[in-house]
Amino acid sequence: MATSVSPEELVITVDVNMAKDLVSSGHLYLDVRTHEEFDKGHLENSIVVPYLFITPQGREKNPQFLEQVLSACKMEDNIIVGCRSGVRSLEASAELLNAGFKSIKNMGGGYIAWVANGFAVKEPQPQPQESV
Fold it and tell me: What is any Pfam family matched here (predicted)?
């Protein structure tokens, strides 16, 4: 009888300080938030592939998630996966590992913790007001 492994048992979660060091040393950063969340602010050079979409019916998993990640990353890449708080990224990390990715780490605390630590983010530039 096969026992299922929970995402917490399968995935290595690192804190934001370790994630920052790993990204600085060349790990890719995969942001699994929605495009709307990403557009409000994100880590420089992030790859964005939403894990869930917000729909009128609620949250729905992105049916092309693996395919979209594979189009941006290789199975051998060192990847840090992050979201807003660390919940979606944990699930996404487990799915990537189950699909055969070799080096996946979840960023605990997510984007909220990254910002709370004062780490650099890329935010949208305010558009200049047109004079009337």
Answer: Rhodanese
41 assigned to some structural domain: yes
58 inside domain: yes
First vs last C-alpha separation in the chain:
72
The pLDDT of residue 128 is 66
Range(s) of the domain holding residue 53: 7-116
Residue carrying structure tokens 């990640």: 69
Integer-rounded Cα Rg, in Å, for the chain is: 16
User: Is 83 one of the annotated active-site residues of the chain?
Assistant: yes
Query: Can you tell me the distance from the alpha carbon of 120 to that of 115, in angstroms, rounded to the nearest whole number?
Result: 8
The pTM of this model reads 0.90
When pLDDT is cut at 50, 70 and 90, the band that residue 115 belongs to is very high
Point out the catalytic residue in the list 30, 69, 83, 92. Answer: 83
Q: Please tell me the total count of domains within the chain.
A: 1
In a domain, 126, yes or no: no
**In whole angstroms, what is the distance from residue 72 CA to residue 17 CA?**
25
